Amino acid sequence: MILFAFYSSLHSLFTVFQNGEVANTIAHVATLVIGLCVYFSSTYYGELFQELKYYRTFLISLILAFVPLIILGDLQLINQFSGKLSFVNNITSFFAQNVYDKRIQGVSGEPSWAMLHILTGLVLFLFFLRGKKSLFILTVIINLIILFVCSFSFYGYLVLGFSLILYMIFTKKVKNLFLGVLILLVLFIGLKLILLDSGISNYSINRFSKLSNITSFKDVLFLDGSFFVRITFPLIGFIEFIRHPIFGLGGGNSYLEFKQILLSYFPEGIKYPEVYFNAFINNKVFTPRNLFSKILAEEGIIGITLFLGFLITFYKKFCKGNISVFTFFLVIAIFLNFDSYATIDCWLLLGLIKSGFFDRGLNVERKNSIYQHNFPVSNG
Predict the structure, then answer these.
(1) Would you tell me the crossing angle of helices 291-318 and 225-243 to the nearest 10 degrees?
(2) Are 360 and 50 in contact (CB under 8 A)?
(3) 67 Cβ contact list (under 8 Å, min separation 6)
(4) Which first-to-last residue range defines the signal peptide (predicted)?
(5) d(CA 153, CA 215)
């Protein structure tokens, strides 16, 4: 990863001489530095967490970190269905600049980030629950699952679905794969029918009703602005790669040809505010919404080879147990839907995998009684 970060930073600095975008290069390098810092810090502390006293500290810290998300998420959930808790938006505004009415976003700036944090929390809490049963942690997990399901987030469902499919493919659990896909389809159809009959109306639920009118891929593409962005922006990144296959456009420069490609291939998309803003107001905020597409567009074949080499080597060397393997593919699924090198959840999880926490950490629970009365307590 250091080799990729070094290449990407150097490449981005070199492009400054071509386009003069110093600020853009600084921002790009900063995201790489943040990602690396979280990754190495997580690896270091993941090794410490395998000691009893630090293991307990990590669990308590994790619980405290998720308390605000869960409490506010529960209030947002109630407001989503009732619409009677107007004060919830005021509370949310203390944590997030953008407030999404009648949607679950926890303390995050947007609902998709909240789903990312919930999935990360579920992986960690489920791990802690494995070695020693705890009613409190089980309650936290159930609460997070309810928030995740009732968010009606296509992004969240997609990330979880991808990670499960990749996990079952690479662990050769083909029968489970077909069964899992069938269960997901049944749940999806059932959820859609329940929501349509509920009479509840908000942004997330209304998207399900639009699915009834889909007859072609074009209908999916133009279902709404979010679908259009999630589908076309990664494609635009790939088109940029085809145009600049060896070195790409340089780190942080995928926006350079965005407008021209958008108007050439997907001109209908300018009717959506987010797309119009990216194309005509501030094109520098454009990103491909997919880390692999971003690397292809900005770093070319050299960059994607280095990054894939890191991931393949990482998987072969550090992913030993079922938890670490699934967590790795969860990170891959997130990379397929986010494109920032500073996605902290991903580097946190990768660092914990590398440290052996998910594989050896269970021994801490099994060899030491760290739970009393179903809740972690100190020796004092």
Answers:
(1) 80
(2) yes
(3) none
(4) none
(5) 22
